Amino acid sequence: MARPIHRREEVESLLEKMKNVKDSRFGFGCDTANEVLRIFAREPERVETELEHTNRLAENIRGVAGEQEGILRGYKEPAMELGKLYRKIKGTRDWGPEEVEAIPEEWLPSSLRREEILRRIRSSRAHVELTSDGRLLLLFEDGGVMELKEQLEE
Question: How many independent structural domains does the chain possess?
Answer without folding.
Answer: 2
